Amino acid sequence: MPYAIRMTDDYWEFIASYTYNPLLIMLELIWTRLEYVYNIPLSSLEEEFALESLAPLLATKCIKQKGKIGWVNGYRILSKKQLEASRVSQNWKPIIIDKILYFFLLRLCKEKSINVNDPSLIDFLDSKQVALGEFIRKIQKTGLVTIHDGNFKFLVRKCGLDILKNGNFICGDNSAQQFEKWLNNYSKNDN
Which residues share a beta bridge with 147? Predict the structure, then answer.
């Protein structure tokens, strides 16, 4: 999904600016919506997947105080150097993850949903000496998984997983075949 901004320190950066033509973003959002509604892999026509850099401005965080839920809002002031850096687009690449996340995502691919308190998951994490809270933060940081109604679920339609020759475990959104294309390019360049 385009322009899904990950949370930073529990803050969701919900307004950002773009230094190039903003109509390109709107077209990509419409394009993606058509893909999801009509299940047409339109973005698979693209040869390379570039990630546009957005300059964050406003951020919010959900808090609970005195039994009530609310929001804390804030803003970011970026230096000239940070704004210049936001003008550079980057090629899409997968996320390097650890072995624990890899095997969890592999299981989630098969089962589609895993309860946060699943006994086998808790036993697995305990055997690896990983706290559940730490694991949840790591899995959500990938931007691929969320927790809904007490269950881990994918935010993406297809998840790509692989182990590279150098031993790195990788994952990424493969809804528009970007993971497969990256892996093919990596394999060609690695030989």
Answer: 152
